[in-house]
Amino acid sequence: MPTENKITVIGLTGGIGCGKSTFCDLMAEHGVAHIDTDQIARLVVEPGSDGLQMVVEAFGEGVLNQDKTLNRQALRQLIFADAKDQSGRERLEAILHPLIQQETERQIRQYQENPNYRQPLLLVAIPLLVEGILKRGHPPSYIDEIWVLDCSEETQITRASQRDGATIEQIKTILANQASRQQRRQYADKMIDNDQDLAHLQKQVEQLLIEFNA
Question: Is residue 11 marked as binding?
């Protein structure tokens, strides 16, 4: 049986436009790997997957494109058709969350059992980490620490509109449905300020690595 590396698993989170991808890229320059749960969420509903089959069984063939891939827009419209009815969203989460967790844990084990991965930490980017804690009452069992990327709402709106091409109204709607800055701070083991420039964020990355390698 492979020997496991002693790795601290970091749950990295933050609201839209807070810079999670940029932070992961900066850490990667120092050899720190990250697992992206957004990518895993897409992986578990790829054509031919059990996840996609379960989604179709729950919501019908209308959530598929002609090439049998998932039509995310159709699914989104279906589960959010009635803002007061959360049953569709809850059914979807009941299907996807266990699959996402299972794959996330599998990827974590790969790093833990890889003798060539010698970093003391591993990032797991979970955009809605705090939202999940608020709903279920606890973080995922595989998380050792929670790091929160934080910036002002004004900065979030500016970055998200430049990156996604979304309107300010659309971004504000997303913000209203995410955890607040105060709620994230409540669960944070470390707060990372990303309200300034890239150099400021880089200095924080370097300081975090110094602390972990001390």
Answer: no
What does the mean pLDDT of the chain come to?
90
Handedness of CA 201, 186, 132, 88 (dihedral sign): negative
Q: Is 104 annotated as a binding residue?
A: no
Enter the pTM of the model.
Answer: 0.86
Q: Which domain holds residue 141?
A: 1-33+120-214
Comparing 125-129, 158-162, 206-210, which segment has the lowest mean pLDDT?
A: 158-162
Mark whether 126 and 149 lie in a shared domain.
Answer: yes
Same domain (yes/no): 94, 124: no
Instruction: Let me know whether 65 and 5 are in one domain.
Output: no
Is 24 annotated to bind a ligand? Reply is: no
158 annotated ligand-binding residue: no
Cα dihedral 24, 158, 155, 150 sign: negative
Q: How many domains does the chain have?
A: 2
* DSSP letter assigned to residue 64: B
| Burial category of 91 from C-beta neighbours within 10 Å (exposed 0-12, middle 13-18, buried 19 and up) | middle
* 69 annotated among ligand-binding-site residues: no
With contact defined as beta carbons under 8 Å apart, do 34 and 168 qualify? no
- Answer whether residue 67 shows pLDDT above 90: yes
